[in-house]
Amino acid sequence: SIFSAFVTDMTTERTFIMVKPDGVQRGLVGEIIKRFETRGYKLVACKMLWPGQDLLKKHYAELSDKPFFPKLIAYMSSGPCVPMVWEGREVVKMGRMMLGATNPLQSNPGTIRGDFCIDVGRNICHGSDGVESAKREIDLWFQPNEVAKYESHSKDWVYE
Ligand code: GDP
Ligand code: MG
Prior knowledge:
The chain is an alpha+beta fold. The protein has eight helices and four strands, in the order βααβααβααβαα. Strands 2-3-1-4 form a four-stranded antiparallel beta sheet.
Protein backbone atom coordinates (compact mmCIF):
# COMPACT_ATOMS: atom_id res chain seq x y z
CA SER A 1 0.00 0.00 0.00
CA ILE A 2 0.94 3.66 -0.15
CA PHE A 3 1.71 3.47 3.56
CA SER A 4 4.02 0.49 3.40
CA ALA A 5 7.19 2.53 3.06
CA PHE A 6 6.38 4.38 6.29
CA VAL A 7 5.28 1.45 8.43
CA THR A 8 7.80 -0.51 10.48
CA ASP A 9 8.24 -4.03 9.18
CA MET A 10 6.53 -5.94 11.99
CA THR A 11 8.45 -9.10 11.16
CA THR A 12 11.57 -7.45 12.61
CA GLU A 13 10.12 -6.79 16.07
CA ARG A 14 12.47 -8.20 18.70
CA THR A 15 12.10 -9.52 22.21
CA PHE A 16 14.52 -10.55 24.91
CA ILE A 17 13.89 -14.06 26.22
CA MET A 18 16.13 -15.63 28.86
CA VAL A 19 16.27 -19.11 30.33
CA LYS A 20 16.85 -18.53 34.04
CA PRO A 21 19.30 -20.60 36.17
CA ASP A 22 16.60 -23.11 37.17
CA GLY A 23 15.59 -23.59 33.53
CA VAL A 24 19.22 -24.28 32.61
CA GLN A 25 19.73 -26.70 35.53
CA ARG A 26 16.51 -28.54 34.75
CA GLY A 27 17.51 -29.11 31.13
CA LEU A 28 14.80 -26.90 29.63
CA VAL A 29 16.96 -24.77 27.32
CA GLY A 30 16.16 -26.86 24.27
CA GLU A 31 12.45 -27.07 25.09
CA ILE A 32 12.15 -23.30 25.42
CA ILE A 33 14.11 -22.65 22.22
CA LYS A 34 12.04 -25.29 20.41
CA ARG A 35 8.76 -23.56 21.19
CA PHE A 36 9.88 -20.25 19.69
CA GLU A 37 11.53 -21.97 16.71
CA THR A 38 8.55 -24.13 15.85
CA ARG A 39 6.18 -21.18 16.20
CA GLY A 40 8.11 -19.57 13.38
CA TYR A 41 10.12 -16.97 15.25
CA LYS A 42 13.72 -16.32 14.27
CA LEU A 43 16.62 -16.68 16.71
CA VAL A 44 19.02 -13.76 16.18
CA ALA A 45 21.12 -13.92 19.36
CA CYS A 46 21.86 -16.56 21.99
CA LYS A 47 24.62 -17.22 24.55
CA MET A 48 25.30 -18.73 27.94
CA LEU A 49 26.25 -16.29 30.67
CA TRP A 50 26.49 -16.45 34.46
CA PRO A 51 25.24 -12.95 35.26
CA GLY A 52 26.66 -10.86 38.07
CA GLN A 53 24.59 -8.89 40.55
CA ASP A 54 25.30 -5.51 38.92
CA LEU A 55 23.86 -6.66 35.58
CA LEU A 56 20.83 -8.21 37.27
CA LYS A 57 20.15 -5.10 39.36
CA LYS A 58 20.06 -3.08 36.15
CA HIS A 59 17.89 -5.67 34.42
CA TYR A 60 15.35 -5.67 37.28
CA ALA A 61 15.81 -2.00 38.29
CA GLU A 62 12.07 -1.29 38.29
CA LEU A 63 11.53 -4.01 40.92
CA SER A 64 14.22 -2.71 43.33
CA ASP A 65 11.65 -1.59 45.91
CA LYS A 66 9.86 -4.95 46.02
CA PRO A 67 10.29 -7.08 49.15
CA PHE A 68 11.34 -10.07 47.03
CA PHE A 69 14.10 -8.13 45.20
CA PRO A 70 17.09 -9.52 47.21
CA LYS A 71 15.80 -13.07 46.73
CA LEU A 72 15.24 -12.40 43.03
CA ILE A 73 18.84 -11.21 42.57
CA ALA A 74 20.17 -14.22 44.54
CA TYR A 75 18.08 -16.61 42.42
CA MET A 76 19.05 -15.07 39.11
CA SER A 77 22.77 -14.97 39.99
CA SER A 78 22.79 -18.60 41.23
CA GLY A 79 23.98 -20.10 37.93
CA PRO A 80 24.36 -19.63 34.21
CA CYS A 81 21.47 -18.24 32.17
CA VAL A 82 20.75 -18.42 28.44
CA PRO A 83 19.77 -14.96 27.18
CA MET A 84 18.35 -14.81 23.64
CA VAL A 85 16.88 -12.40 21.14
CA TRP A 86 13.92 -13.58 19.06
CA GLU A 87 12.53 -11.76 16.07
CA GLY A 88 9.15 -11.81 14.36
CA ARG A 89 5.67 -10.38 14.05
CA GLU A 90 4.32 -9.28 17.46
CA VAL A 91 7.01 -11.39 19.13
CA VAL A 92 6.98 -9.29 22.33
CA LYS A 93 3.30 -9.90 23.06
CA MET A 94 3.36 -13.48 21.77
CA GLY A 95 6.50 -14.21 23.79
CA ARG A 96 4.70 -13.17 26.97
CA MET A 97 1.72 -15.36 26.03
CA MET A 98 4.00 -18.32 25.32
CA LEU A 99 5.72 -17.87 28.71
CA GLY A 100 2.46 -17.64 30.64
CA ALA A 101 1.63 -15.65 33.77
CA THR A 102 4.44 -14.53 36.10
CA ASN A 103 3.12 -16.83 38.83
CA PRO A 104 3.18 -20.36 37.39
CA LEU A 105 0.19 -21.31 39.53
CA GLN A 106 -1.74 -18.88 37.32
CA SER A 107 -0.02 -19.85 34.05
CA ASN A 108 -2.26 -21.80 31.72
CA PRO A 109 -1.25 -25.34 30.81
CA GLY A 110 0.28 -25.16 27.34
CA THR A 111 2.44 -22.19 28.28
CA ILE A 112 6.12 -22.66 29.15
CA ARG A 113 5.64 -21.74 32.82
CA GLY A 114 2.29 -23.55 32.93
CA ASP A 115 3.91 -26.75 31.73
CA PHE A 116 7.24 -26.77 33.57
CA CYS A 117 7.16 -24.95 36.92
CA ILE A 118 5.20 -24.17 40.08
CA ASP A 119 6.77 -21.33 42.13
CA VAL A 120 6.97 -17.64 41.14
CA GLY A 121 10.52 -17.56 42.53
CA ARG A 122 11.49 -20.47 40.22
CA ASN A 123 9.63 -19.62 37.03
CA ILE A 124 12.41 -20.73 34.62
CA CYS A 125 12.28 -17.99 31.99
CA HIS A 126 12.13 -14.26 31.38
CA GLY A 127 10.40 -12.36 28.58
CA SER A 128 10.27 -8.62 27.87
CA ASP A 129 6.95 -6.96 28.74
CA GLY A 130 6.96 -4.35 25.95
CA VAL A 131 8.76 -3.23 22.81
CA GLU A 132 10.64 -0.48 24.67
CA SER A 133 11.75 -2.74 27.54
CA ALA A 134 12.82 -5.32 24.95
CA LYS A 135 15.14 -2.74 23.34
CA ARG A 136 16.56 -1.79 26.74
CA GLU A 137 17.13 -5.41 27.76
CA ILE A 138 18.71 -6.42 24.43
CA ASP A 139 21.15 -3.49 24.74
CA LEU A 140 21.90 -4.46 28.33
CA TRP A 141 22.66 -8.15 27.66
CA PHE A 142 24.12 -8.12 24.13
CA GLN A 143 26.72 -6.22 22.16
CA PRO A 144 25.42 -5.06 18.76
CA ASN A 145 27.75 -7.52 16.97
CA GLU A 146 26.25 -10.43 18.93
CA VAL A 147 22.86 -9.92 17.25
CA ALA A 148 22.82 -11.52 13.81
CA LYS A 149 21.15 -10.01 10.77
CA TYR A 150 20.03 -12.68 8.33
CA GLU A 151 17.00 -13.72 6.34
CA SER A 152 15.27 -16.97 7.28
CA HIS A 153 14.70 -19.36 4.37
CA SER A 154 11.25 -20.05 5.89
CA LYS A 155 10.22 -16.39 5.77
CA ASP A 156 7.69 -16.77 2.94
CA TRP A 157 6.28 -19.95 4.53
CA VAL A 158 5.69 -18.25 7.88
CA TYR A 159 4.48 -14.83 6.69
CA GLU A 160 1.87 -14.15 4.00
P1 GDP B 1 7.77 -11.25 34.69
O1 GDP B 1 7.92 -10.08 33.76
O2 GDP B 1 6.59 -12.13 34.32
O3 GDP B 1 9.02 -12.09 34.80
O4 GDP B 1 7.42 -10.69 36.15
P2 GDP B 1 7.97 -9.37 36.91
O5 GDP B 1 8.72 -8.49 35.97
O6 GDP B 1 6.83 -8.80 37.65
O7 GDP B 1 8.96 -10.01 37.98
C1 GDP B 1 10.24 -10.45 37.59
C2 GDP B 1 10.53 -11.76 38.28
O8 GDP B 1 10.55 -11.57 39.69
C3 GDP B 1 9.46 -12.85 38.07
O9 GDP B 1 9.60 -13.55 36.86
C4 GDP B 1 9.69 -13.73 39.27
O10 GDP B 1 10.79 -14.62 39.08
C5 GDP B 1 10.06 -12.72 40.34
N1 GDP B 1 8.88 -12.35 41.13
C6 GDP B 1 7.85 -11.58 40.74
N2 GDP B 1 6.93 -11.47 41.72
C7 GDP B 1 7.41 -12.20 42.75
C8 GDP B 1 6.92 -12.49 44.06
O11 GDP B 1 5.85 -12.04 44.47
N3 GDP B 1 7.71 -13.30 44.85
C9 GDP B 1 8.90 -13.80 44.41
N4 GDP B 1 9.62 -14.60 45.24
N5 GDP B 1 9.38 -13.55 43.18
C10 GDP B 1 8.65 -12.77 42.37
MG1 MG C 1 9.00 -8.36 33.95
